Amino acid sequence: MKHILTTISVLLGVLISTAQAVTVTTVNEQLCYYNTETGLYDKECNPYIEASGRIAFNEEQTLFVHTIDNMKSTYYVDYQDHTERLEDGSSVNYYWYEVTSDVGNKYSLIIDIKENIVTFITSDKGYFLTYIIKAVF
DSSP label at 49? Predict the structure, then answer.
């Protein structure tokens, strides 16, 4: 499993650094809501549901199209960052994007290669959606 994650990480890094189109396919979706009373996200998120998806970036990494079973949306990248190590020295590998949807909604998108998940967080932090990465190409 570690070899697969390392391979995916290297592949994604190479593709992004050479400005090529990147596609991430996903399976299973989980929805988590923010609890305004506790000020935290609920620990008991909705259970994962079966859901196939695809996030396809353009070569310039300025936009991507997110397609799931019942929806297709375009997102425009306002900001992006890649982090491989935290200040405390711990190893991570994620790509962080601030994006605006084709209808004007703002989200944070985190593609976490080490944990093998993709997360969309609403700008008001009201909820987030998590998907499990199936493949990166």
Answer: B
For residue 19, what pLDDT is reported? 58
Measure Cα distances from 40 to 123, 130, 132 in Å: 15, 16, 22
Q: What is the pLDDT of residue 125?
A: 83
The answer to whether the Cα torsion of 10, 28, 63, 72 is positive or negative is positive
Q: Whose structure tokens read 């996903």?
A: 26
What confidence tens digit (pLDDT) does each residue in 1-59 have? 444 444 444 444 544 445 568 999 999 999 999 888 888 888 788 999 999 999 999 99
- How far is 125 from 69, CA to CA, in rounded Å? 24
CA-atom Rg of the chain in angstroms:
15
DSSP state of 50: -
Q: What's the pLDDT at 49?
A: 93
Residue 117, judged by CB atoms within 10 A of its CB (0-12, 13-18, 19+), counts as middle
Beta strands, E only, the chain: 23-35, 40-41, 53-57, 63-68, 71-85, 91-101, 106-112, 117-122, 127-136
